[in-house]
């Protein structure tokens, strides 16, 4: 069986700004989604692939930010090597791959390399991509997703022929060309590095002639590598019919969490809370959380470590971060409650699910770290910054 490796591109502190205020205290790849750090989801799926020997997580966070996760992951997935490689500065989605090519290609040298963006949630159909890739043996297979025509131009758009060959790729085109978009998951042959080298040399040649083009290691996988690969008919597309969602905004974390919780019903039922009259499936409750038996939890709820849920509380479609306390008869719907918040008795947090084409309107309520809500307050579709104490009700605003 051919050796395979996985790369997860996690970006760095200057990325994921739309995740604020949650990313003020927690790096985006480590935000809890369905009770697990965001980066755990692609990693757990990669670890199941036959022939996969190693996963390299590439980003520009300090090593110390990712060290705890990598240590835990090595223990949880002992059959594969796992490491974090830090870019000295943001090198773009292809620059980092190229910079660390020796680490990726070191023995056992992989024939195939899966590459995943961190900011998407899907079922990671790696085996299906591998089956298609093994048939066509082009340089790469991209996971395509069908989206609504109105939203397609927000993504990298793919035009393919009936044999799955990509004939045209445009990153965020000005006008509509296709409903099939780049889902942020790829499978490449190791010859990807030859193609990136061509793109690097091309950029260096342009930089020599044009002072506006910087001569550095920064390179984008989508525009600088996949566009020419598509033009040279070297890319194929595997269209997933399963769920797919971007995780760009704090609000989108709630829908991603729900989708992963539903998936856990098939893939990791042992992680989910046992359904009962007061716990509705699918829900995740950390074993260290304390839940009053009269509280009603779920569906689509993820409750973190050390959370205390008092009598008569209602929680639905929500993520509750570590150390938070929901006092008696409080209600949390369509919301994210950050670390160590105090939700007073009879207080209510709610919002509406994020629409697919969310344009600026606040939908889901998001409380950052250490926010306190006084008893009986109502907070609807708000973003609340850290360390605030709210003693009155708010709606549809950012509370600074
Ligand atoms: P936006 O809509 O502007 O967010 O663009 P996009 O959806 O194409 O996303 P973007 O290219 O910013 O990021 C795609 C993925 O690559 C994400 O998982 C990022 O975390 C990751 N990423 C982006 N830039 C870098 C980088 O310089 N280095 C590394 N290692 N990862 C990156």
UniProtKB/TrEMBL annotation:
Pathway: Nucleotide-sugar biosynthesis; GDP-alpha-D-mannose biosynthesis; GDP-alpha-D-mannose from alpha-D-mannose 1-phosphate (GTP route): step 1/1. InterPro entries: GMPPB_C (IPR056729), Hexapep_transf_CS (IPR018357), Mannose-1P_guanyltransferase (IPR050486), NTP_transferase_dom (IPR005835), Nucleotide-diphossugar_trans (IPR029044), Trimer_LpxA-like_sf (IPR011004). PROSITE patterns: HEXAPEP_TRANSFERASES. The keyword Membrane does not apply. Residues 281-395 form the Mannose-1-phosphate guanyltransferase C-terminal domain. Keywords: Transferase. One of its GO terms (molecular function) is GTP binding. It catalyses: alpha-D-mannose 1-phosphate + GTP + H(+) = GDP-alpha-D-mannose + diphosphate. Its EC number is 2.7.7.13. Residues 5-203 form the Nucleotidyl transferase domain. Belongs to the transferase hexapeptide repeat family. This is mannose-1-phosphate guanylyltransferase. It comes from Dioszegia hungarica. The lineage of its organism: Eukaryota, Fungi, Dikarya, Basidiomycota, Agaricomycotina.
């Amino acid at each position: 069986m051919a050796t395979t490796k996985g790369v997860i591109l996690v970006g760095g502190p200057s990325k994921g700004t739309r995740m604020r205020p949650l990313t003020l205290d927690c790096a985006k790849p480590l935000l809890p989604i369905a009770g697990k750090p965001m980066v755990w989801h692609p990693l757990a799926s990669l670890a199941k692939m036959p022939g996969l020997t190693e996963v390299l997580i590439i980003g520009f966070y300090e090593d110390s930010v990712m060290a705890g996760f990598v240590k835990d992951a090595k223990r949880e997935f002992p059959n594969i090597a796992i490491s974090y490689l830090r870019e000295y500065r943001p090198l773009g989605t292809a620059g980092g791959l190229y910079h660390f090519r020796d680490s990726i290609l070191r023995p056992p040298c992989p024939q195939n390399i899966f590459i995943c963006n961190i900011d998407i949630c899907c079922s990671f159909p790696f085996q299906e991509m591998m089956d298609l890739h093994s048939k066509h043996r082009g340089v790469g297979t991209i996971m395509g997703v069908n989206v609504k025509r109105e939203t397609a131009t927000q993504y990298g758009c793919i035009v393919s022929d009936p044999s799955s060959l990509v004939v045209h790729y445009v990153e965020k085109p000005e006008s509509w060309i296709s409903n099939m978009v780049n889902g942020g998951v790829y499978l490449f042959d190791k010859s990807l590095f030859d193609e990136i080298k061509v793109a690097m040399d091309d950029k260096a040649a342009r930089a020599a002639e044009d002072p506006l083009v910087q001569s550095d290691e920064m390179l984008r996988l989508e525009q600088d590598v996949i566009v020419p690969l598509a033009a040279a008919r070297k890319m194929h597309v595997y269209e997933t019919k399963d769920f797919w969602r971007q995780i760009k905004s704090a609000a989108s974390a709630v829908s991603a969490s729900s989708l992963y919780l539903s998936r856990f019903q098939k893939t990791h039922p042992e992680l989910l809370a046992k359904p009962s009259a007061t716990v509705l499936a699918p829900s995740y409750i950390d074993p260290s959380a304390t839940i009053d038996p009269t509280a009603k939890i779920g569906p689509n709820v993820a409750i973190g470590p050390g959370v205390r849920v008092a009598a008569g509380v209602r929680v639905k479609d929500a993520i509750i971060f570590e150390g938070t306390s929901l006092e008696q008869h409080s209600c949390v719907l369509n919301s994210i409650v950050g670390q160590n918040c105090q939700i007073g008795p009879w207080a209510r947090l709610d919002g509406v699910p994020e629409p697919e084409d969310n344009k600026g309107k606040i939908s889901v309520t998001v409380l950052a770290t250490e926010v306190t809500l006084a008893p009986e307050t109502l907070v609807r579709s708000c973003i609340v910054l850290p360390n605030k104490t709210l003693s009155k009700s708010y709606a549809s605003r950012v509370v600074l």
